[in-house]
Amino acid sequence: MARQRISKKKRVLTELYDMCKSRQNFVFSNDEVKAVCAKVEFGNPFDATKVDSSAGLPDALIDDDAFIVHLGRGSHQFAFGIANGYHRFEPIPDNRKYQWPYRRSILNNINTSESDIPYWGYNQRVIQDFLYADRTVSPKVYLSDHTQISPNYRIGEEEINAAQVQVEIDMTAEHLGTITVFEAKNGEPPDFNVLQLFNPFRYYLQAVKDLAESSINCCYLLRNEDNLRLYLYQFGDSHTPQSINLVRNAEYVLIE
Known about the structure:
This protein has two domains: 8-80; 88-255, no CATH class. It is α+β, with helices and mostly antiparallel strands. The model has no long low-confidence stretch (mean pLDDT 94). 30% of the residues are buried. The chain has helices at 8-23, 30-40, 45-48, 59-63, 82-85, 117-123, 126-132, 195-207; strands at residues 27-29, 66-72, 75-80, 86-88, 97-101, 140-142, 145-149, 152-155, 158-161, 165-169, 171-175, 178-186, 191-193, 216-224, 227-235, 244-255. It contains eight helices and 16 strands. Strand 14 and strand 15 form a beta hairpin.
């Protein structure tokens, strides 16, 4: 049987992992990423270590139950326990699937980028209905943000100490003392990197004095054409990403 061809990005990750494994040190640098990318002829070293879904991990990492965490300041690390780093999207029950009538506006579907998904859901009042059970509510909304934090947390039994890690927040909503951070993707991935929600959660805990952990929740949005799936999560322990718990989920099919 012919060997299945793997993507250049997966080849980069495989070579980085083999290098770290051979020296028995699983921390690696941006300079090493750039060197391997040049060798493999992968043109975007800044994207090489970003794996939003476990489906993007190469076989070498899956076989050893390994994945990547970002340590900041140009460093990364292979950690172990994929189930600790990625969370599978839960099935949506039939009674949480809705037909959502709407009237198409002039700018609908002009921008289909992932960064636009939260605003699309907000403008169609889907987010208000999902979060607050009231489409007439008008929460305060804050645009996408890029910032940095220096979190320490636990992956399985391993302590991770990161410094100046970049955090991307697609949108933030605030209503009646509750903060909701949003992450959005196109398509139907099977799971997601928990740190995509955990790091923004930790950012607001650090940024807002005396804010209770229970005052922050996280909403993951998946858009597929006019179908929007929403998953609301909370973290039970601010030191443990795998403490993520589903609050509720729903699917809205927008019908003109």
